[in-house]
Amino acid sequence: MESSIVKLSEVRTDNELFRFDAEYFKKDVLSLENKIKNKEWDYLGEISKSIVNFGAYSLCNQIEFIDDGVPYLNVGDIGDGIIYYKKSPKIDKNISQFVLRKSLVKEGQVLLTIAGTIGNAAVATNLPKFCNSNQAIANINLIDCVSPYYVTIFLNCKYGKGQTKRLTISSVQPNLLLTQVKKIKTYLPTLEFQEIISNSYQSALDAQLNAENSYIKAQTLLLTELGLADWQPKHQLTFVKNYSDTEQANRIDAEYYQPKYEEIINAIKGYAGGWDALGNLVSIKKCVEVGSGEYRDESIPFVRVSNISPFELSEEKYISESLYNDLAPQEESISFEKSKNYQPKQGEILFSKDGTPGIAFYLKEQPQKMIPSGGILRLKSKTDKVNNEYLTLVLNSVLTQEQVNRDVGGSIIFHWRPEQVKETVIPILPEEKQTKIQQQVTESFNLRKQSKHLLECAKRAVEIAIEQDEKTAINWLKNETGASLPGSP
Questions:
Q1: Contact status, residue 301 vs residue 315, Cβ threshold 8 Å
Q2: Are strands 300-303 and 371-372 parallel, antiparallel or unpaired?
Q3: CA separation for the pair 419, 226 (Å, rounded)
Q4: DSSP secondary structure string for all residues of 291-353
């Protein structure tokens, strides 16, 4: 049994809500804060000009999402140091500027998630001129002598995450109040150390941008080959289809027959190099549901659809080691599709079919222990007609997404049936063009990996500075990144 002995005066310190639950006074959390207190530090609110968010929830009533407008950032758009704004919902520019002016994102702000997934921080940089954040994000404007890049790394390291986790109010949906955000104890190193950490962060952002550019080049190669480089989907209000078409497709809803879907299918099936159905290219295996009652705070990752992106897998829910062993027994001598082993293998593609269907992630390297949820399919190549990087790019492209939109259109909750997945049409580009796309995708993957490494190194360097000293942290960072850093021998 673990216990903490805390003086009443310490219970009251920085505890405006007067919490006295055991979770709030766990030994590991108290240890983190004590290490910060042994260094130069201040409250986040004291080193900020302002910490604000969206404003009144009633303002949500004035928001209408549109196809072309100002990015409206959600919690899911704030990663570990990276802002993914390109797929954010869009709102009208006038709503952005005048109604939601408190949530206008400004260059150099630190954005911190404070509801749902709490404690992710990123610097607002190189965003569109107008951009807003929702009520679950705190916009932090620091004083001039404190680097927003450094503070972001601090908030994302274990000393920042430990505090945001401790200060979170657990209710139906976890929340972190702005008053609590202001109470985050922030380690304040020398300006030289802040600059070093900032440079590492900015190098990570540069690598991330280069990765995005490489991926865009790969997409452009694919779409140009099919004559779709400038293609834009257009929703038509009226069009004519034959009754025989409805009999063949067994669908009578108008959305299924939108001409934009037919344009995509015709471009693929009309491609000179040929095409094939996905089910002929890969074996498909359903994954498994465990039920929320099996979720744990840590242990083996249980990968859900919300944890998949084309570029990485995130972690949020976990299952016990014993349940994992039941779901990933020793390899059986039966077919891939019928196997009861749900541990993904290197070379497979994880592909979402429910919720947000049509997201593919290629397991280029040996994956860690994990179990994917029932909303995810495992794809295993059974032909040499396409390479895995190329196939993953196609699955994440507009080519597949429009086929998804056609098949699941009209549903309240999106479910893409495995038999529909198997019928997805895939263009078969010549080997040399597939190889060029593979090279661009691989370059993008390596750059993203480099970006993540730089961010992780920056976080660890801050932790070492708190636990030991700045000089040791700088030397460690130099050895890990190979960078020439000031202050190191």
A1: yes
A2: parallel
A3: 25
A4: -GGG-BSSSEEEE-GGGB-SS-B---EEE-HHHHHHHS-SPPSS-TTT-------TT-EEEE-
DSSP three-state, residue 409: coil
Distances (CA, A) of 336 to 289, 342, 412: 18, 10, 32
pLDDT for 234 beyond 80: no
Q: At what angle do helices 431-467 and 27-37 cross, to 10 degrees?
A: 70
- pLDDT value, residue 330: 76
Q: Out of 336-350, 395-409, 473-487, pick the least confident.
A: 473-487
End-to-end CA distance of the chain: 46
CA–CA separation, 15 and 37 (whole Å): 16
φ, ψ at 378 (rounded to 5°): -105, 125
Please give the mean pLDDT across all residues of the chain.
88
What would the two tokens of residue 260 be?
Answer: 């934009």
Q: Kindly state the average pLDDT of the residues 271-279.
A: 96
Could you give the dihedral angle defined by the CA atoms of residues 122, 125, 130 and 133, in that order, rounded to the nearest 10 degrees? 0
Q: The tokens of 165 are what?
A: 């986790």
Alpha-carbon distance of 156 to 164, in angstroms, equals 10
Give the burial string for 377-410 (b: 16+ CB within 10 Å, else e). bbbbbeeebbbbbbbbbbbbbbbbbbbbbbbbee
Closest by CA to 432, choosing from 153, 221, 283, is 221
Read off φ and ψ for residue 132, nearest 5 degrees.
-125, 155
Helix (H) or strand (E) holding 46: none
Give the range with max mean pLDDT: 32-36, 356-360, 478-482: 356-360
Q: From CA 209, how far away is CA 6, in angstroms rounded? A: 47
Helices (H) and strands (E) counted in the chain, each on its own, are 16, 18
Q: Which of 98-102, 162-166, 241-245, 481-485 has the highest mean pLDDT?
A: 162-166
- List the 349-352 sheet strands across, edge first: 282-286, 376-381, 349-352, 360-362
Above pLDDT 90, what percent of the chain?
A: 69
